[in-house]
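Hey team,

Filing this mostly as a record. A colleague (T.K.) asked me to run one chain through the structure pipeline before their review meeting, and I want the input and output archived in the tracker in case anyone asks later how it was produced. No errors, nothing strange. Just documentation.

Input sequence:
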Amino acid sequence: SVKKGDVIAISQYLFTGSEATTVSLE
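Output structure:
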């Protein structure tokens, strides 16, 4: 089962991960 807190943590992790990837690609 996935808790609401887990969804937020995962979405934040994915968001920051994509942000870091975008920065490194530039």
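Quick notes for T.K.: The helical segments are 4-25. The longest helix spans residues 4-25.
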